[in-house]
Specification:
Oligomer: single chain
Strand content: under 5%
Number of domains: 1
Number of helices: 4
Distance between the termini: 23 Å
CATH class: Alpha Beta
Structural class: mainly alpha
CATH superfamily: Nucleoside phosphorylase domain
CATH architecture: 3-Layer(aba) Sandwich
Helix content: 25-40%
């Protein structure tokens, strides 16, 4: 997985470069947030949505080129499913954490 700043689409050159480096997924979120939460001792869970194939599949006629409209259509189609997931997941979060998240980086080497 490669993490890029978004929201944006990769160029064809970027996609080829990411693929040549062995990346199968391009992610515009999760990594910076997860690291910061860990450093601050905050419990964290991510929810991600795959919206498109990027531009890395040129030549594959079964995959249409990515457009903003197509990515937004995927998001729109998943609104109810995401709402249902969150309405069930949020009440299941315990009021008292039973994890070590609050310890942050305490005791971990800084190297």
């Amino acid at each position: 997985m490669v993490v890029i700043q978004g929201p944006r689409f990769s160029t064809r050159a970027e996609s080829r470069w990411f693929r040549s480096a062995g990346s199968d997924v391009i992610n515009m979120t999760q990594y910076p947030e997860a690291v910061l939460a860990r450093e601050l001792g905050i419990c964290y869970a991510g929810l991600a949505q795959i919206t498109d194939y990027d531009t890395g599949l040129e030549g594959d006629t079964s995959v249409e080129p990515v457009t903003m409209e197509a990515a937004f259509a995927v998001l729109e189609a998943s609104v109810e499913q995401t709402r249902h997931l969150l309405m069930n997941a949020i009440p299941a979060i315990p009021e008292t954490a039973s994890c070590a998240c609050a310890e942050g980086l305490a005791g971990e080497p800084l190297a």
